[in-house]
Amino acid sequence: PLNECIDLLCRQMKLDPHFVEFYEWAGANNVPIVVLSSGLIPIISALLEKLLGHKPGPHLHIVANDAESRDGKDINSEWGWQVRYRDNSDFGHDKSLNIRPYAQLPENVRPTLLYAGDGISDLCAAAETDLLFARAGKDLVTFCEREGMPFTTFEDWSSILATTKDIQSGKVSVKKAAKNSAEKVSGSNGTTDNAFNGLKN
Hints:
The protein is α/β, with parallel strands linked by helices. The protein has one domain: Rossmann fold, CATH 3.40.50. The chain contains eight helices and seven strands. Strands 3-2-1-7-4-5-6 form a seven-stranded mixed sheet, sandwiched between helices. It is globular and about 55 Å long. The relative contact order is 0.15.
């Protein structure tokens, strides 16, 4: 049953508590957050509600696969649900397709695109953004190192928040932040010390 799956995951999974501060800052500063995931919308929604203590506000959007009834059964019955994939890609959700329309907007209306991820399903989206945050020690870092793709590592959302604040306030440009990341990659032979958000220009 889907409801039992959700309850089990909510009990066992721990989310980064620093994301709450990032979420609150983003809401106060008109910065939209888009959760791009190969997971399921009802599970992600439940996990976020547990972490935040309430349903996410309108500045947070979830774009992911979904759950649907199987053969007309009650979705909360035994074998009563199945995954409804967004597309036919390997993970059922090609995240780059969600980012590309924004990346291709004219410069005067195009938002600044920041992306945080950690896994294989994030590879397709990595090249579409202005600044990529990759979780330390995960598959996305390995891929970026191998391909020479600029990225900034993060341990938790506190460092993502600090960098995003600096960009939003004008203390540092996103191009400068990305350049610093690129220099770390090239200067260390590819060795450097998972949500997508759009900063409005």
